[in-house]
Design a protein that fits this description.
The chain has 303 residues and is mainly α. Helices cover 68% and strands 0% of the residues. The chain is built from 17 helices and no strands. The chain has helices at residues 9-16, 20-29, 33-44, 51-59, 63-81, 91-114, 119-131, 136-149, 154-164, 172-185, 195-205, 210-216, 220-232, 246-258, 262-271, 278-281, 287-301. Helix 6 (91-114) runs antiparallel to helix 7 (119-131), helix 11 packs antiparallel against helix 13 and helix 14 (246-258) packs antiparallel against helix 15. The chain is globular.
């Protein structure tokens, strides 16, 4: 459903001109690590396996070439696996998933060797560790390498949270402990505080019955934690998001809507410009339909 560029003109130009010269120049001149992470993610979103990736590594085996091919390899691996849960994923899908992810892991480790101060290869290596099921110790080691280079790398935090979630062999306690500890440490206005809401959504998703789903976000503790996280992030005077800031408004709109906190949900829908994102709405199935349904339900409740 979402536009991977989020309407950012530079990101749109990247998709229109994916030459290695353009990409390398952009990455070299983008000093904000969060903005740089966003651009890497945009480049990596291309479907299939564009031939220019292998050509770039062959012609100019620099850190940026390995980083981009590795980041794309992670997306390419998940493209093979699909978004279904493990029990609905075929052996052939898993085989392609692991083969592609292993290649991405190799590229990203090479990028990290060539650019030892860059957090970006390590951020994608966190995702690789989760997908390759390398264990919680290796997951934590890779995450530590990210935050030593950039303490508030949002994508790495989100991926670490996923790796600690029950659906990836973690636990609710591990997931919430990590989210709350990092959110508390983060500066005001940082999207890191939204981790606790991501954890709430994962806990909600893991529930078995419709009644449990309906009640989860209406619990006073869950409501209070979502509101406090909003005050630290999207409602904070220090909130200064990058081009993908809309995705955080979607996370809060989702949580407030499930809590039937309609005024707060409407505020976040409006702040997101009425534009949905795949996450977290895809947890309902069809993300576009879910977004429109919940937005309409919130507006109807406020009439």
């Amino acid at each position: 459903m979402s536009d991977v560029t989020f309407g950012d003109p530079t990101a749109e130009r990247l998709l229109a001109d994916d030459s290695s010269t353009t990409i390398r120049r952009l990455l070299a001149t983008t000093t904000d690590p969060d903005l740089r992470a966003f651009y890497v993610e945009v480049i990596a979103e291309q479907p299939g396996r564009p031939p220019w990736l292998d050509a770039w590594v062959a012609d100019d085996p620099c850190a940026e070439a390995y980083l981009i091919r590795g980041a794309h390899g992670v997306k390419w691996a998940w493209e093979a696996r699909g978004s279904a849960q493990a029990e609905h994923t075929s052996r052939e899908q898993f085989q392609s998933f692991h083969e592609r992810l292993a290649l991405a892991d190799e590229d990203l480790r090479r990028a990290a060797e060539l650019a030892p101060g860059d957090p970006e290869p390590w951020a994608h290596l966190v995702t690789c560790a989760r997908g390759l099921e390398l264990g919680k110790e290796e997951l934590a080691r890779r995450f530590k390498n990210v935050i030593e280079r950039h303490p508030w790398h949002m994508r790495a935090h989100s991926q670490m949270l996923q790796g600690l979630a029950p659906k990836w062999g973690g636990s609710t306690a591990l997931m919430f402990n990590f989210a709350r500890e990092r959110a508390l440490a983060a500066p005001a206005g940082s999207p890191i505080a939204a981790l606790v809401v991501e954890a709430q959504i994962e806990a909600w998703f893991a529930l078995d019955t419709e009644a449990e789903h309906d009640a989860y976000f209406e619990h006073p503790g869950a409501r209070a934690e979502v509101r406090a996280a909003a005050d630290r992030t999207v409602r904070s005077p220090a909130w200064n998001p990058g081009p993908d800031g809309m995705r955080f408004h979607n996370v809060f709109a989702f949580a407030f809507a499930q809590a039937n906190d309609f005024a707060a949900a409407a505020e976040q829908f409006a702040a997101g410009g009425g534009r949905g994102d795949d996450h977290p709405w895809s947890y309902f199935g069809d993300d576009g339909e879910a977004y429109r349904h919940e937005y309409a339900r919130v507006r109807q409740a406020l009439k």
